[in-house]
Predict the 3D structure of the following.
Amino acid sequence: MLILSVIVVAGDSEAQERFIRFEPSRVYHYVPLTQPTTYQVVLDVEDPSFEILSGNWTLSKSGSYYGYYYFTIDGPGTGAGRARWIAEGLPQGTYSVEFWALYGDFAEDARYEIISADGVTTLSVNMNYIPSGWHLLGTFNINRLCVVNISDYWTGGGTKLSVDALRFTLTSPLPSPPPSPIPPHIGICIDDCGAVDPTQPGTPIYKMLRLPFKMTFAVLPYRSYTNQTAEEIFHRGSEVILHQPMAAISIPDPGPGGITDDMTLAQVREVVATNLDSLPHVTGMNNHMGSLITQQEDKMQVCCEELKARNLFLYDSRTITTSVAYDVAKQNGLLTGERDMFIDGNSKEQAKELIRNLALQALYAPNIPHLAIGHVRSSTADALQEIAPELTAMGVEVWTISRCMAQVIETDFVPDGCSFSTTGTWSLEPNDCLSKQLHDGYSMFVADPSEWRSESALFVPSLPWRGLYDIYAIWNVEPNNAPEIQSIIYHNLGVSTITIDQSQSFNDWFYLGRYLCSAGSSSRVVFNDYLCTLPGKVFRVDAIKYVFAGEVSALNQFWYFF
């Protein structure tokens, strides 16, 4: 249940109507013209959905799924070495869950823990010298969220434990896509631009700049066509970011304008500042290679400081699981995100399948980011061109990366310049919400708020840009949650109040609406229990996020006066 009231300070009724349409008073139903018959998600250890929680894991390369790497840990151990996959936004249904196995002296009784709609299931799985490929963990009922934990504890044979990819395949009928207050969308960034003339017909960059949607293009510094490419991208209405070269584990010299392992922090700062200053129309940055540098918190801190000084965003290409770039950017309060999928594949058809798969995920979960990276390749350009009508038929839009960037504020992870505070009697809850966008820590709750009706929680952002923002909240969903929690959103046009039923049926990001916000900390979100009357309920908070939805159009520039 969602009840919305709006108080606006503008005197222009037309301005009020234009603004109110961005709030969640309308819900759109996106039904693909051709309903897909299968739904399958693969979560690799290279994806944001995977996380090493503790232990001394070793990076390995030979024989992995998707051709990059996997992780191993020596054992048997005590269970202190832990890792997990978080599958979120899955359509409700029954799934077969499989793991990708390697052939070797691995654990005879690896311990998996699956948290799904069925509850908590513990499995003992023989991974010792089994054939390479997919192997079934089991069949589970899933409603939006499934968490798979694994540890280094086992008692049988085997000298190592390996972790690689998981595959979730829906075996029950695919439901209709859920209603959404915003269009389902994917963000696409095209890397390695700047080496080829963008005005030359027939080249991949030429084709990509003429697609029926706008994308983000990451331009390498000091290439033959760096500046011309940036100008052409901007002229065509797409987005320019710096494709910052960084040393990889196996490639110490990343090329002109690159960051190397032996650089001092002062040298890193100078390189990044010079590169950003030299690139026309730059709005953000991602890393070119960088599997070595993006693991170094001090160097990434310098990069983020330079981006923050210019109000630019960071997009972590996530060329290695242990990258800290996204976390450092979050801590610095940047609008940020990390790559979910590389969409190039080994052929045009494989690229189309990867794009299609990401779009299908977005169709069923438009409230979490679905971010891709491709490269200036003919097969990728042709795949994007051919799949464009299919994406339109599905109801999935392609957005620039900036429109997908978020600032996340949590009870246990407050970015620089932001704040979180409470009034009243609150308790810590060790089990916080699970999402690829969240820090692993704690959340907070009020027991029996009807006895108090005086508790509140305040989240204050520090936004880099004035513009429209989609605002979301998340909390631990339990059947005894309070159905009368009040949320108050402060924005440029006044104050909006929403009454929320926190006992909604699944853990997910809850859409609070789209609002016009100024740069800085004038916007804020308050949750309170002032309306709670039912005894024995619980009031919970965990996190909010501001997702940049775009600049204010030229027709509505008068909003700046509010």
Remarks:
- The helical segments are 13-20, 204-208, 226-235, 265-278, 297-309, 325-331, 348-364, 378-394.
- Confidence is low (pLDDT under 50) at residues 1-26, 557-562.
- The longest helix spans residues 348-364.
